Structures are given as structure tokens and as C-alpha cells.
């Protein structure tokens, strides 16, 4: 690339990445405010959970009859990143936004990253036709959308950029994607937090032990547990989805059945701990001992919610699963409770999405760079022990087990 081509590249992506960051950051801000309202309204009116099956039918019906390929969710973005086939429809943005809000409003167990990433990717891909982008530049702008959506919904711009690059990584890394990904991530985070005034949950790991061989050795069994938990989480979701597809042929009826089961579980247990995002329980996992089975309950209820056809992300439930599993492991592993919760927070996420670098960066952004060695070690071990699994069925895992 000569000087003229480089100048054209910088000028093009300075404008496009900034625009994508502004769009995805604004979309995330609107989404987060709406999600907070839905969560608070549900907690004040728990009778709404009884209508979860009806909400499920509405979501399933709209997606089945009007969603087209939007039903593939994050997997559609991966498919288009690997090989461009069809434009990502603009309808994906309102569909996933309202589908996720209704899922949370009526008591489903789901996350938020999938929604932000899909909105970011959908909005970004609209610029392909507006600016007549070629196939390579289209791929870059989708990466920008993913980076902006992820960064702004969690307040982690560094992790958002790395996630967008690592998530879609193939055997050939393209250096041209680095600048647009990082710029869109940081712009999206600034727009969401500074322009719109939407904040994010704060976490803390107050005690970091010395980096001794003994302390680091204890990360190994913890990381293995996080990797196996990630595998269980991914396979639970895929398995429940397959069961519903085999047993119920008409897609809108699947979330109806799932909604009935979730509502019954909440009714008979008398607990709303495992529905919604579960952020209060995640925060508690850094502070006080919790029931050992919290991570299992969240895995099952999230698998049932998303596997039956409700909308939302997987990452916040993965945070819940990992943080509470780390909390439970503090009874056997002599490391600080908050550190184990933080290691689980990012470790299970790493194993379930095959993105150890992004998860390590996220952990340092959220918990402080002092914990980076422990977090990174846990993420790598969890990634290695998660097996050939991913919460995203379209993710290319060839690189993970490539033969030398």
C-alpha cells in the first residue's frame, strides 16, 4: 500500500468508523435505558411473568413471519463475515430490540450483548449500499458494528474492538480491520456514556494476591472448571433448541412452551433470582458467599429461554454463571472470593465464545489491570478446556484445533 492508498484508507475509515460508532452507541443507549425500565417494571409487577408464554408467541410469530434471515441472530453476522451472501436486513435492529425487551419484561432469562451486536451489525451494513462498499470494505464495516455494539453495551471499548476481531478470526488476519474496529468501539462507548449519559455496572476486586507459583497453580483447576461450565452452557442451549425444533414444528409455539416452563419454575421455586440479566446476583458474587448451585440454575434457565426461541444475548448469563461458579469454588480454592468471581466472570465467557484475548482485556477494563495475570491465565485455560463448543453455532473453530 503506497502513501496515497494509505491516506485514502485512513480518510475513509475515519469517517465510516466514527459514523458506525455513533449509530451503534446510540442504539445501545436506547436499548440499555429500555432494558432498565423493563427490568424495574417487571420486578415491581411480578404478575407479568404469567404472561411470558403469550409474549413468547408474539416474539415467535413476528420473527417467523416477518424476520426472514434475522432469525439467525449473531450467526447471521458470522456468516456474512466469513462469506458475503446477502445484506443484513435493517429490520434486525427493531426486531431484536423489542424481542429482547419483551423477553426481559415478562421474565425470560437472557442477556444483552447479542442485541447490541446485532443492532450494531445491522445498522452498519446499511452503509454498504449507501457508500457502495466492495466486499472487503463491507466486511470491515460489519466488524465496526460488532465492535461498537459490544463496547457500548458493556462500557469496555478495548474488549469490544478485540472481540470483533477475535470472534470472526479466520486463518488469515487482515491488518486493515484493526483501525476501524478500535475507532468504532471507542466512539460507540463515548457516545453511549458521555453523549447519552448511560452508565454501566461497576465491579471491584479489592484484594489481589502475589503472583507466586502456588497462587497461579490454583488458577489451573479453576480454569478447567470454567471451561467445562462454558461447554455445558453452550451444549445446553443447543440441545434444548434441537429438542424444541424436533417436538414443535410451528416456530411461534416453541417460545410458548418455553415460556410456560420458565413461568412454572419461577412459580414453584418462588424465586426470581435466575430470570432477567441477574446483575444484582453477579455483584453479590464479588462480595459474599452464595448458594453453590446458582451457576447451574442460571445455565438451565437461560438455555430454556433462548433455546425455545426468546431473544437476548448469552454473555450476561455467562457472566452470572462464571461469577457464581467462581464464588462457589472459593470454598475449596484458597484465592480471594472476588478474584475467583472475576476469573469466572471472564473465564466462562472465554470458553463459551472462544475469545480469550477479548475476555482478558474485558476483565482488566472492568476489574483493574492488577488482576490481569490471573484473569488471562484463567481465560486461556477455560478456552482450552471448553472443547469444540461455542454459543454461536456458525463460529469457525478450525483455528482452535488446527493440526500442525
TrEMBL record:
Main location: membrane
Sequence intervals crossing the membrane: 45-67, 88-107, 140-165, 177-196, 216-234, 255-277, 331-354, 366-385
GO molecular function: chloride transmembrane transporter activity
Topology with respect to the bilayer: Multi-pass membrane protein
Keyword Membrane annotated: yes
Coiled-coil regions listed in the entry: none
Record keywords, A-Z: Membrane, Transmembrane, Transmembrane helix
Compartment(s): Membrane
One GO CC term, this protein: membrane
Pfam family, one: Voltage_CLC
Organism superkingdom: Bacteria
InterPro entries listed in its UniProt record: Cl-channel_core (IPR014743), ClC (IPR001807), ClC-type_chloride_channel (IPR050368)
Keyword set includes Transmembrane: yes
Entries under PANTHER family matching the protein: CHLORIDE CHANNEL PROTEIN CLC-E, CHLORIDE TRANSPORTER
Protein name per Swiss-Prot or TrEMBL: H+/Cl-antiporter ClcA
Species lineage: Bacteria, Pseudomonadati, Bacteroidota, Cytophagia, Cytophagales
